[in-house]
């Protein structure tokens, strides 16, 4: 399995130069995979990239094909070293089985919970792709009903209520808190959220650590819920984006702490081709600065949970907006505050900081009536 987009970023075939037309973007011009750039020889590039044959990423344009990340990768740098230079601390393993089940060199200990999730996700995605190849999933995505307007729904809710729009999360468990709700009916919860003013819904799809599923996403989409749906998945491969669209997702989560810049750029491009929205999540100032340099970002999520300690502090939203709020506003980017929101004071605090929306799960789903809990969170009933 490709460990990231960098591992499949260029496919200069043995007979170079090559011209490839991407079926993802029917109006785009043919892409000439150039070989007159600094770095390895054409033969070396072809050998280095042979493992990427058949990948959707052979359809990169010149700018991406000649990006510094691709040149570094072709020169022999590891994906982890390229990512580390961008401040990414989550390493990639790319093993065919779960790292905890290996022995010797195949066995490793993750640095934190997020790294463990990503290692497990690599195995899961590899297994899923073997059962449902990318081309098949792409065709399913094309047949899915048109995506709903995620950004428009947030804007409308904010205008109606004069408060940050709510992205309410359908979430059964977390690796930190364990089981959050014994009686878990995703459709029932989703309808309760919508009835009580949620603008959009976030559906956890990770099975191993959050007890979620893509079946939950599809079931909620087919249940008559009108809210746009965010697929809350740990995306490491474009396959997941197409699969989410095929199941009815209108938006996906991209985590800057996991994805190098080139991955984010390409995944944003895939989302646009599908009419989907990408919520790009950051945790700190360095990640935010990286994301602000990438064109096409519409929504940034600020996660108030520390990746190192997993402690939550809503001051993280305020701090980052104080430092970069002017740039964010100039670019017209909307900000979502995530994690640590339990009371009307919490919502008011991030509202005053300048957010457009809040993403809330735990403080709602743990209540007897998650829908009615929305009024308690905001201090009033929301119009819908």
TrEMBL record:
GO biological process: L-tryptophan biosynthetic process
Catalyses which reaction(s): 1-(2-carboxyphenylamino)-1-deoxy-D-ribulose 5-phosphate + H(+) = (1S,2R)-1-C-(indol-3-yl)glycerol 3-phosphate + CO2 + H2O
SUPFAM superfamilies: Ribulose-phoshate binding barrel (SSF51366)
Record carries keyword S-adenosyl-L-methionine: no
Alphabetical keyword list: Amino-acid biosynthesis, Aromatic amino acid biosynthesis, Decarboxylase, Lyase, Tryptophan biosynthesis
Indole-3-glycerol phosphate synthase domain location: 114-375
Known EC number: 4.1.1.48
InterPro entries, A to Z: Aldolase_TIM (IPR013785), Indole-3-glycerol_P_synth (IPR045186), Indole-3-glycerol_P_synth_dom (IPR013798), RibuloseP-bd_barrel (IPR011060)
Domain of life according to the entry: Eukaryota
Name of the protein in its database record: indole-3-glycerol-phosphate synthase
Native source species: Panicum hallii var. hallii
Classification lineage: Eukaryota, Viridiplantae, Streptophyta, Embryophyta, Tracheophyta
């Amino acid at each position: 399995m490709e460990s990231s987009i960098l591992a499949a970023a260029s496919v200069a075939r043995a007979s170079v130069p090559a011209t490839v037309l991407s079926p993802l973007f029917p109006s785009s011009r043919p892409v000439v995979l150039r070989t007159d750039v600094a770095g390895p020889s054409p033969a070396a590039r072809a050998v280095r990239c042979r493992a990427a044959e058949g990948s959707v990423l052979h359809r990169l344009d010149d700018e991406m094909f000649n990006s510094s990340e691709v040149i570094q990768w072709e020169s022999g740098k590891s994906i982890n070293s390229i990512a580390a230079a961008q401040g990414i601390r989550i390493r990639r393993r790319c093993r065919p089985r779960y790292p905890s089940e290996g022995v010797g060199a195949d066995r490793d200990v993750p640095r934190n919970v997020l790294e463990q999730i990503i290692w497990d996700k690599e195995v899961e995605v590899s297994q899923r792709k073997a059962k449902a190849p990318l081309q098949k999933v792409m065709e399913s995505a094309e047949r899915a009903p048109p995506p709903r307007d995620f950004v428009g729904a947030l804007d409308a809710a904010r205008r109606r209520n004069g408060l940050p729009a709510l992205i309410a999360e359908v979430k059964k468990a977390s690796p930190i808190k364990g089981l959050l709700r014994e009686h878990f009916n995703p459709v029932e919860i989703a309808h309760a959220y919508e009835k009580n003013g949620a603008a959009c819904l976030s559906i956890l799809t990770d099975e191993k650590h959050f007890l979620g599923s893509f079946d939950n996403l599809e079931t909620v989409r087919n249940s008559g819920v009108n809210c746009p749906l965010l697929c809350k998945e740990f995306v490491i491969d474009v396959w997941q984006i197409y699969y989410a669209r095929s199941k009815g997702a209108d938006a996906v989560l991209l985590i800057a702490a996991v994805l190098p810049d080139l991955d984010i750029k390409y995944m944003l491009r895939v989302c646009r081709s599908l009419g989907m929205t990408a919520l790009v999540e950051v945790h700190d100032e360095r990640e935010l600065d990286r994301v602000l340099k990438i064109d096409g970002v519409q929504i940034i999520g600020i996660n108030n949970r520390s990746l190192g300690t997993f402690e939550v502090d809503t001051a993280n939203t305020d701090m980052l907006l104080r430092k970069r709020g002017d740039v964010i506003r100039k670019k017209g980017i909307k900000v979502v505050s995530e994690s640590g929101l339990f009371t009307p004071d919490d919502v008011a605090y991030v509202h005053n900081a300048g957010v457009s929306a809040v993403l809330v799960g735990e403080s709602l789903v743990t209540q007897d009536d998650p829908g009615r809990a929305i009024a308690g969170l905001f201090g009033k009933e929301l119009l819908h």
